[in-house]
Amino acid sequence: MKNHIKTIISLLLAASMLLGAFACAKPEGGETPDPKDANGKTSFNPTAVNLTANVTPSKVEGRAADQKFIAAQADFAVTLFKNSLNMQGNTLVSPLSVMLALAMTANGADGETLAGMEKALGGSSLPIDELNEYLYHYIKYLPSGEKYKVTPANSIWIRDGFAENVKETFLQKNADYYGAAAYRAPFDDTTTADINGWVKENTDCMIEKVIDSIDPSTVMFLINALIFDAEWAEKYEAGAVHDAPFHPYGGGEKTVSMMYSDEYFYLSDNGAEGFIKPYAGDKYSFAVLMPQEGTDIYDYIRTLSGGKLLAILNARKSEAVSAGLPKFSYDYELLLNNALSAMGMSRAFDPNSAEFTKMSDSGLYISKVIHKTFIEVAEQGTRAGAVTVVAMDEAAMMTETEHSVILDRPFVYMIIDNATNLPIFIGAVTDIG
Known about the structure:
Helix content: 25-40%
Number of helices: 10
Strand order of the largest sheet: 1-3-2-4-13-12-11
CATH superfamily of the largest domain: Antithrombin, subunit I, domain 2
Structural class: alpha+beta
Order of helices and strands: HEHHHHEHEHEEEEEEHHEEHEEEE
CATH architecture of the largest domain: 2-Layer Sandwich
CATH topology of the largest domain: Antithrombin, Chain I, domain 2
Radius of gyration: 24 Å
Shape: globular
Largest sheet: 7 strands, mixed
């Protein structure tokens, strides 16, 4: 069981272990500052009130990772990765960050919307109540030590005037299982700064901004932030780093700083080979698979499944590997709406049919799921950050009167200044094509 747990940790954090940035400025003693003051307000903006400051999480039962949980999470990780591929460059997702943000959201879903989210998050085998228990135990016992840590943080932000529409049972459940604080805020520029400040602090400054502004129809954000920070068990010495060629996808050649080492866990399957490099404390590892020469990497990725990836990792061989790992650092951001819809939860994005009645009776739907990551792999180790933001919007109320305007003959059009209704551009269409 211990090996299985280590395997799923490696899998779920595969993306997060490839993240990094410079450390946040911290007070003397090295402790990250608490984002809340003595009154339960965020340190970023005193108008953001912590609604759960006086809420004591109930004692809940966790459920240790077993084969059902491991298989479901492996499938989720690989499917999310495949559906999020950037065909023009590097890709990076944190399945664990996305899972935590969506699981919190699913606690407010019902009916077919909940069924679709459960399908996306765990298949038919993991109803949300069980998933809460698994994730509670999994997060609680993620190991951290002096030279390695994984730190998740969760929060819920609610627009002023809408907080009374949010059900207490929904907030309580997310406080119980995910330690999520709920903040009431004006959803203006100060709230944008607050949310970005919360994200920056809870990713050790690796991700400094996740939203630019807040849409007027957005009434709630559910956010997960995740940090991975670990030193290598065997760090690279200066003499082990040399310039070397790297051949990017599409052809050509670049010179990179290649870190050379001897590793002792070999990975292989019919289409790729690789190695596992452990981090200090032997709680986390970096795993890599390189397709055979002549095999298109996207073709190889298409062959992967959760079960296949677990099989490759479980079949590691204790054999010597002369390894070369290039230093790299990049960030990645994407909107996950299409990827998650393809995984079965399209109803959650539909303003006309989404059912989040366990969250509120106000007709909510998911308008967007933003995912942002950062990675730096270097001589000393790996630093990682990820954030997932689920934006909940209130569906517009429909009136009984319905009009139909089909522009099938000449028409006038304009671009107006909303503050004055003055046209900035005005024109007429008399012919098309």
